[in-house]
TrEMBL record:
Comp. bias (Basic and acidic residues): 446-463
Region spans: Disordered: 444-486
Location of the DUF4055 domain: 248-381
Protein name, per record: DUF4055 domain-containing protein
Length: 486
């Protein structure tokens, strides 16, 4: 089979992914694809008679249609919630650079996390690849869902693991720095003798980049230890297995597309209703009618008749109601909180928001686990202990509400030394008290008091120098009493 062969699950879901691509790009992309708005039978028959002359019928029909950007707006709202999350990152010393430079285009781990969450929401699948650059530093690459064309699993030491991953890439043609023409190539990762290999082929299957094993290398650039796995993670919306997950916003995209199709009929009907068609009959052959309008008068002759064919639009209201139904379906399926003009109670809205946040919760957890797994691959590749890696995200989307009275009592406790400053700060920033045992809280208080004492001595030595670098005694020194004052 050729290198561009696709996985059967890819063939099943590619239409959904292409629909999501169009939905996110917007109205122009939706209108470019004729499959999104089938031609009415009358237009099909008219084009059979004269395709060139009657092409305008479908063009006008499409131009009047209106695509609502519910999907793009909903994704933006969800990412607004996610953008407030702060990942907790711990890395070995040799991997600290990944925090600010983790992706193939030079962005850090936080930006990688946001990108992956966005794609997991919109397409339900984020292919993530860990690789090593020419200087021996690890980096991450993500692929558009439609470009992860093939994958396979097999028994590896008693476990079902990936043994093949193929990705479509695009390389710019050489010779002209101004051109944007690209050639499609295919990067593959595969297991051979329990070691991961990679190669790049063109559409004819010919090698562009030779096959090479991936793993740790020695000073002589010889492979010391090959990777016993593919450094590829298929992050999904519910888990990180290679199987295709559901697309969270697919229901909304379908509702938006159906509303677009209905709008074509709705606005065409309105246009026809407001533009009645004149008709004439019984005219002599010598009579010519070339001008119409409020300033024109027709001489119909002795036998001529005229009138208007008016489009009654009996089904317009039904179409409009169907469009409203699709909007309601989209609102129920999406994460964007939109004004529904009082038709939704406060409790219903709260329940819907909690459900949306639950969906975001699972996506954020899944993506964070995928990033952490990728960092473990990178650590193992570089010879570090994977257990030293941590990438956690607390998916808390609700805006923190701080009780002023509780905050004041906590401040009193901090001043009295019975509450740690960390507890006070966490409540101030999150609206929640930290969950930890009493012994840990006591240790924090002890550490903070010890640190404050050290800082105090240092400040005194700087701010109140005396002979020999000692603080100068004075009237305000409580250890001297009245004698000091004298």
């Amino acid at each position: 089979m050729p290198v561009q062969s696709t996985n059967p699950d890819y063939d099943v879901h590619i239409a959904e992914w292409e629909m999501m691509d169009d939905a996110l790009e917007g109205e122009c992309a939706v209108k470019r694809n004729e499959r999104n708005l089938p031609k009415p039978s009358g237009m099909v028959e008219a084009e059979k008679i004269d395709a060139a002359a009657n092409k305008y019928l479908y063009e006008n029909y499409t131009n009047r249609a209106q695509y609502e950007h519910w999907v793009r707006d909903s994704l933006r709202s969800m990412m607004g919630l996610v953008s407030r999350l702060i990942p907790e990152i711990e890395l070995p010393a040799g991997l600290k650079g990944l925090e600010d430079n983790a992706t193939s285009d030079g962005f850090g781990l936080k930006q990688l996390f946001f990108r992956m969450v966005r794609q997991a929401i919109s397409h339900g699948r984020v292919p993530l690849v860990v690789n090593i650059d020419e200087s021996g530093e690890p980096y991450f690459s993500t692929y558009a869902t439609r470009n992860a064309i093939n994958w396979d699993t097999a028994d590896q030491g008693g476990r079902q693991d990936l043994v093949l991953s193929v990705f479509r890439e695009f390389r710019k043609k050489g010779g002209d720095r101004y051109t944007h023409d690209c050639d499609a190539v295919f990067r593959e990762f595969f297991m051979l003798d329990r070691v991961c290999y990679t190669a790049v082929r063109n559409e004819a299957g010919e090698l562009i980049d030779d096959e090479r094993a991936l793993g740790t290398t020695g000073t002589d650039n010889r492979l010391v230890k090959g990777l016993p796995y593919l450094p590829v993670i298929y992050c999904g919306s519910t888990d990180n297995s290679p199987e295709v997950d559901e697309v969270p916003l697919l229901t909304m995209a379908r509702a938006a597309l159906k509303s677009y199709q209905l709008s074509a009929d709705y606005f065409t009907s309105l246009h026809q209703t407001s533009h009645p068609q004149p008709w004439v009959s019984g005219l002599d052959e010598a009579v010519e009618l070339s001008v119409t309008g409020p300033s024109a008068a027709w001489d119909l002759g002795p036998n001529g008749e005229c009138g208007y064919l008016e489009f009654q639009g009996a089904g317009i209201e039904a179409v409009r109601k169907a469009m409203d139904d699709q909007k309601n379906a989209a609102l129920e399926a999406g994460a964007k909180v939109m004004d529904v003009a009082g038709t939704e109670s406060g409790e219903a809205r709260k329940t819907r928001q909690n459900d949306q946040h639950a969906t975001l919760h699972s996506i954020v957890i899944t993506v964070a686990e995928a990033v952490e797994q990728g960092l473990r691959y990178a650590a193992e590749w570089k010879g570090y202990d994977p257990k030293q890696v941590k990438f956690k995200v607390n998916p808390e989307f609700v805006t923190p509400v701080v009780d002023a009275q509780v905050l004041a009592e906590l401040l009193k406790g901090v001043m009295a030394g019975t509450i740690s400053a960390d507890t006070y700060w966490q409540y101030l920033t999150t609206g929640k008290l930290p969950e930890r045992p009493y012994d840990e809280e006591a240790d924090l208080i002890s550490d903070e008091r010890e640190s404050a004492g050290i800082n105090l001595d240092k400040d005194d030595a700087i701010d109140k120098p005396g002979a020999g670098g000692q603080p100068t005694a004075g009237a305000d020194d409580p250890t001297l009493g009245n004698a000091g004052a004298a």
